[in-house]
Batch of 4 targets.
Target 1
Amino acid sequence: MELRQLEYFVKVVEEASFTKAAAALHVAQPGISAQIRKLERELGQELLDRSGRTVRPTEAGEAVLPYARAALGAVSGARQAVEELTGLLRGQVTIGTVTSLGPSIDLPALLAGFHHDHPAVEIGLTADTSDRLLEAVAGGRIDLAVVGLAGEPPPGVGVQIVVDEALVVAVSHDDPLAARTTLALGALADRPIMSLPRGTGLRASVENACAAAGFRPHVAFEAGDPNVLAQLAARGLGVAVVPESVARAHAAQLHTVGFRPALRGVLALAWRTEGPVGPAARAVVRHARAHLPEPATDR
């Protein structure tokens, strides 16, 4: 059994195609097919189902796949460990982030600082919802992510809270709620509200709190950026639930109402704590945790 056979097998599964795998690896397709056939003969089982329009792993292939990935990860980690000991950290890290971070998190500065310290490490950046980012971190597809939290992280994921602030109601100055300074969450049971989409930490916090209060919120508007929600509320289009810092940024156009009891919005760094983690990934987690320490809250 050779490492390249495992590499070819994993890539074909990921691409669901011999042709795409060959293109990604810059190898001739017949070479990939021949090596995987050798691997199948050695194991005595077919690993790939070639009968459909796309290539899929067989039951045996599904069983072999995590071991193949672990073997490739171990070899990559061994190489990077040697490079780390010699002072030349190489590799690639992928960082995920929610769309709106607010003023407290300067992600470009964080990435620039890491690049300055480790110029040979390639950095990738992707944006998504918190739910999908946490799933990707747990699966080892993302090395570090900035996510919204509305509860405990999934197993195998460590977190460090970096933003913890109040969520508030933002309305136009002529809205009936503009006469209030605080309100119980139940006061929104009959009002259409505006919120971030499902899968975000803020939306989960709102829905969990509403469930605890005995109702399901009627979300009339969704936007991935809380600043857009604030602008919609300022135009009199409804009630927005946003972080307090966002409401402050639009204070001239909005009236802010606090929740009683308080409702919190939390952003956190998330990283993998189980499974193989390479030196470059460990380095970016260390850098981020030092760059974005846990905040003092106003609880």
Target 2
Amino acid sequence: MPENAATTNLQNYGIQDDVAMHSESYSKHYDDDGRLKRTGTVWTASSHIITAVIGSGVLSLAWGIAQLGWIAGPTVMLLFSLVTFYSSSLLVQCYRAEHPNYGKRNYTYMDAVRSILGGDKVRLCGILQYLVMLGIVIGYTIAASISMMAIRRSNCFHQSGGKSPCHMNSNLYMIIFGATQIVLSQIPDFDQIWWLSTVAAIMSFTYSIIGLSLGIAKVAEEGTFRGSLTGITTGSVSLSQKIWRTSQALGDIAFAYSYAVVLVEIQDTIKSPPSEAKTMKKASLVSVTVTTVFYMVCGCTGYAAFGDAAPGNLLTGFGFYNPYWLVDIANAAIVIHLVGACQVFSQPLFAFVEKGVTQRCPSLERELKIPIPGFPPYKLKMFRLVWRTLYVLFTTLVAMLIPFFNDVVGVIGALGFWPLNVYFPVEMYISQKKIPKWSNRWISLKIFTVTCLIVSVVAAVGSVAGVLLDLKKYKPFHTNY
């Protein structure tokens, strides 16, 4: 039968229309990779990033500036923000391997490294990425327990009129936070925690604004700006302490800007068109700008209020006692925010482990349908329940063993900043763009990489030294605060 006759017959029977309608319906509900249509936008991606970035790290920035001083402190913060935005601009282009609109998708950071660099770098990237995620969750567990403990202590100080030392142990609060994470960890996918990220982002602004307001009020009350151009002096601390603290401050600031570890995973939630890279670059610009303004204002205000005595955690170091109810609200907001932030950093690790295990043992993918009156049955996967529960138990136990917020934050920030925020994005960009070796562009990118490596090493050394000093005087499960 001639082709035009066959086409006419198909049209007569409505077969072509059915195929076209099916194809159109398919494209409305599914993306080009066969997955359900992604719905993320600039604002949802920004919420995820802000939730991940404006975390408890903002509360240690006054302490960080106190170590560096009025000149170096804000300058270092601005430089970290520029490095973060530049490297994230390189990384967003790695989501699609060949073309920004229709190339093969890389669903995770590891997938991007695998498709562009390959070899042993994939394994190295995976180890670093998931160790940093694990470390961040441990750090956030410590921070959340400290904030919960601070609420009780502020009420204790208020009731006793400041006469009681109000010592208490953080273990109970870590257990409470861990129990909450066990429940929330059963949310199946990253896509489904957008509402949690939105709430968490609002909470981060809430406690940051409260901390800022209390700092401004204290400066106004005393009528003077504290602090010095070079930071804490060697008269207050020894020269070696000054060096370690300065190094640790770099780690704290690096931690406050770390979100590359989940950038590709966040980008995988974004709808297109326009291209995911274009949307994610806008989200990165919005997020880095907002966080830098908050960091500058909160860190500088805290330093102006307390000078060299700025606490390691602005709202729990008891620089502020009154109004106690406002401090309580701020700490409650921190806890709610960290509940969401832990999920932002945990979900990619959950997905990685579950994908690998179920590919090797498909029977673990089975679901149990639990009937709920008036609602669709809840689909429970036993492997997901057991593995995610064990993960939360592990992170909670480690947090109870090393509850040093400032030092842990510094170590995590230092270890994760260079390889994940700088090295891999630069190497993938060079490979994708086929930049000739020893060209001016290649040399400038390598200088950028080496400079950031030196900063990371210095920060890591100082932060590890801080942890070792803390461990000398700490008794696990017994030390009270």
Target 3
Amino acid sequence: MRYLPIRLHPNQDLRLALEALLAQEQVRAAFVVSGIGSLSTAMIRFAGMSDPTPLHGDFELLTLAGSLSPDGAHLHMTISDAQGQVTGGHAAPGCIIRTTAEILLALLPDHGFTREPDAASGCKELVIRPA
């Protein structure tokens, strides 16, 4: 395992930047260990919903966690607004960095992640294989 600290900059798409970084590092499996920062737009898919909800404003990114594979990211986050109200869910594309995002990735070069249909859940789920 190799750790990779990164900083994302204003106007970057959080999820797309992490997916691109995985490809750039030529790794097929990674986990987001920690993530903090701020967002100007949050695209959050709440539990049981099929589409993300766009939220606009000044948000603190309190937590970010998930897995990264060449098939895409599975990320969850919590954010707080200017009144300190906290919400969270699945981080969809379109989460835009406001000032910064400081993220620690754990790159797993000995593994390969894919997302494949799962009969039990009806969704594409993580499949873990040796590299």
Target 4
Amino acid sequence: MKSSFVYPIGVQGKPWGDQERKEWREQTRIKREYNVEVVPKIQALAKQYNVEQYGALSYDPERYPLFCIKNCDWDESKPTILVTGGVHGYETSGVHGALKFVETQAQFYSKHFNIVVAPCVSPWGYETINRWNPNAIDPNRSFYQDTPAEESANLMEMVKGLKTEIFIHVDLHETTDSDETEFRPALAARDGKELIEGMIPDGFYTVGDTENPQPEFQRAVIESVKQVTHIAPADSNNKIIGSDVVQEGVINYPLKALSLCGGLSGCQYGTTTEVYPDSPKVNDEECNHAQVAAIIGALDFGIAQLKA
């Protein structure tokens, strides 16, 4: 359904220029601190893991260093798994779910895999609770060569530097009520397009790759998350956020064509998680646990494939 809402920045129907992007950036505010809520948790893991800085954001390099966490007993004979969180910085459980996985589960799974975790790809977005970076660019639509999004460019360079194929990639996200109330209206205004109202699903779902859907892998993730939280139902048209539901709690996107983080590695098995933190049925800790459960489901499936 078309919306009568008019975004307060720009002229309706006209794409933003530099002035509108500047106006948008100036109305953002720091609402929480990366160096208080995230970095100390990362640094605390250095006792058990290799914590490496793989870059920094030029907006404020000292405030926004970028970290990845790796297992110490790296073994070239093992397959490598990648976990990414906070590509959209405002999606809180993506960041803290990634860290909770390292804190509670990574030691066990390092017996089977080399593990790389980038817990907060977009720290400016984390602090300002934003989907975009300061230039009004969505990092999760920016994983392509010569990308203008520093967040995406730094992560791609880090993954390239591993010099190994990625066996499993789990990209941790959330779908929030603010997607519909703020971020999609802002996107329509930025691009000079008409806003079509959508519906936020109540529950967890995953996004697979249209080109490499791996339905049994997606099912394993859903079954694991079911032990922690509820799965999003399809709407009356058998869709979730406008895409066909291909099995319970699963939709597919063309990840590479859309330049999404989930498509950056060319992994054998990949999934993008979507937690719904605004549901009255969940709390913040349950959302973090759901992200951990998704990773566990993915890695247990991977172990089974290696033994087959």
